[in-house]
Amino acid sequence: MNIGERRSRLGWTVAVALAGTVIGVTGCRPTPTAASGANTRPAATATADGGARVQGMAGSTVAAAQPAGPGGACVFVKPDGAQKFGHVGWGFRVTGTDRWVYGAVENPTNALYTPPGGPIGAWHAQGSYDRMLSEMSRDAHYPGKSTHPYSRYRCVSSPGGDVAAARTMIRTVENRGFLVGFDPSTGDLTSRDCLDATYDVLHAYRARHLTHAPRLDIPNVWVETLWDWSDHTLRPH
User: Could you tell me how many helices (H) and strands (E) the chain has, helices first?
Assistant: First the structure.
């Protein structure tokens, strides 16, 4: 069995559990937990001017550098979200500029199904790379009170990117509702969650080395398959 088959089967197993009487996972919803063990990734912290700095392994601090352009993409992670199955958001560079577009589907209601047009906590914003890191580290756009901001991010450079297609996909994912389980309109076991939104936007952008994310895949599993993407810890100011 190859890696893709194992990930796909694992996703279906989780989905079946979700569809049962007892629901242990509530979709892409951050849940507060105690801090886990030592972290070996470089950490980024927000600066007073709204930027961000990276904390090195030996404790030294250096300015956070955005991926080499003219394009680029990032995935933001809440590892302890959704009962530690993870939660993700996205960011992409407006090709040839220093501006980034970033966002997520937060699902603050915990609902496993929200029909199209319903409240799914979808948002997006635009700003510099440093501002993107700063706002993600503080959950600045979370609808309501955030209990667990994004604490990890992975990025990749790109020689280009389809910004128009990515912007179109943002509108799609923000209006298609939320689902983890059986689709009431078709009866299919599928998903329209935070990972699907993140993958669909970055796939539309044509991000480099973007691993395919099957429906019902697990965010924390998928994030580890992003080959050649940088890996950093993100700490709020």
Answer: 6, 12
